[in-house]
Design a protein that fits this description.
CATH architecture of the largest domain: Beta Barrel
Low-confidence stretches: 32-37
Number of domains: 5
Helix content: 25-40%
Length: 395
């Protein structure tokens, strides 16, 4: 006889135990399969499209340039005897910058004055000769009426008068020459004092006291850097290279906004002032100049800038957050919530402004667009919506 037959209660308990275990396992597997078949509901952040005016802007990067840049050269030869300014100094219009040794130029002025005085003395002396010749001629004209002198005497007096006047004209011409020489000498003396042609900052100083400078350097060498460099930054220029397709949109007088890395929280406002009516053959771009007032002189030449030119406005444009747009190759689409499920809709986009983008085709404006969680859903998946701001606060 088997042990189970000798203990029927134990055998019955064992059967009941295994039956209960099997039932529990069956229920658990059934619930797991049901949960696997039931899709999980995802919470997404949604936003409604808005309609408002949208500014159309062209964005470019560019360098900031001073309004005026000049390399200071000497118009006379000589040694630098004094530098009145240095790098970083702000100078006013006509302020003295450099002195060239002007000893020789003072001597030249004094010599020209002396030569002019001598020439004027000769003219004064010749004036007396002319007056005397004129008196003789007049007297001969009176005496010939009474035949006290001959016609030959009158002709001689006329010739002497004409010669005296010719000599007077020659000496007066010499006076004029001396006056020109004096003016040139005084000009050279003035040029030995080099002054600022406009107000600005000294950006470079290339020579020191004692260096020799020549007027020939400025006229024959375009590579020479000059004694110093002066920059006018009361107004700055931004040279923007506009691509060919945007050229018809840009006009003189349009507003422009500039942001510099040195001042990330400040927006500078300028105006399109000049358009170069020709394209660069190498880049197929056209240069557009933007003038920007810089009275506080915060912007410096050579700074890097981001420029946006306002070229138009789309009135009451339909816009959605930029993060709502998904892209797949050449297709752009958004997910909207319809009857508690995500629905994919292809869209055509237009201009963008900051964190919003214009929807030209695909939406009516009454939808709820999924912005947060759009990468977790697919077409037809159940979703639970929450305002986008609430989702951001939870995160």
């Amino acid at each position: 006889m088997s042990p189970l037959s000798r203990h029927p209660l134990i055998a019955l308990g064992t059967l009941v135990f295994f039956a209960v275990i099997g039932l529990v396992v069956f229920r658990l597997s059934t619930e797991t399969k049901a949960d696997a078949l039931k899709p999980r509901v995802i919470t997404v952040g949604v936003a409604s499209p808005i309609r408002q005016n949208l500014d159309i802007r062209l964005a470019y990067t560019a360098d900031i340039s001073p309004n005026q840049i000049v390399n200071i050269f000497s118009r006379v030869d000589g040694y630098i005897i004094k530098l009145h300014v240095d790098k970083g100094d702000f100078v006013k219009t006509n302020q003295l910058l450099v002195e060239i040794d002007h000893t020789d130029y003072h001597h030249a002025v004094n010599q020209a004055k002396a030569n002019l005085s001598a020439a004027k003395a000769k003219v004064a002396q010749q004036d007396a000769v002319v007056r005397n010749a004129k008196l003789t001629f007049d007297r001969m004209q009176t005496l010939i009426k009474d035949q006290f002198v001959s016609q030959q005497d009158l002709d001689t007096a006329q010739v002497n008068l004409d010669a005296a006047r010719a000599a007077q004209d020659s000496l007066q011409a010499q006076v004029n020459q001396m006056e020109v020489a004096l003016a040139q000498s005084e000009t050279n003396l003035t040029y030995s004092y080099i002054r600022a042609p406009f107000a600005g900052y000294i950006a470079e100083r290339n020579l020191d006291t004692g260096a020799y400078v020549s007027s020939a350097t400025a006229s024959t060498s375009t590579m020479s850097r000059g004694i110093m460099s002066l920059h006018d930054i009361n107004t700055v220029r931004i040279l923007v290279e506009v691509v060919e397709r945007d050229i018809p949109l840009v006009k003189v007088g349009q507003k422009a906004e500039l942001r510099a890395e040195a001042y990330p929280d400040h927006v500078f406002e300028g105006t399109v002032s000049r358009i170069v009516q020709a394209l660069n053959r190498a880049t197929r771009t056209m240069t557009v100049e933007v003038d920007l007032p810089n009275g506080d002189r915060r912007l410096k030449g050579g700074m890097f800038a981001r420029v946006e030119i306002l070229v138009g406005t789309h009135h009451q444009a339909l816009q959605v957050p930029l993060d709502a747009i998904s892209r797949l190759e050449d297709t752009q689409y958004v997910y909207v919530v319809q009857d508690g499920r995500a629905k994919r809709i292809e869209v055509e986009v237009g201009a963008r402004s900051e964190n919003r983008i214009e929807i030209i085709k695909g939406l009516t404006g009454d939808e709820l667009v999924i912005v947060s969680g759009k990468d977790l859903v697919h077409d037809g998946r159940p979703v639970q919506t929450q305002p986008l701001d609430a989702v951001k606060r939870e995160r």
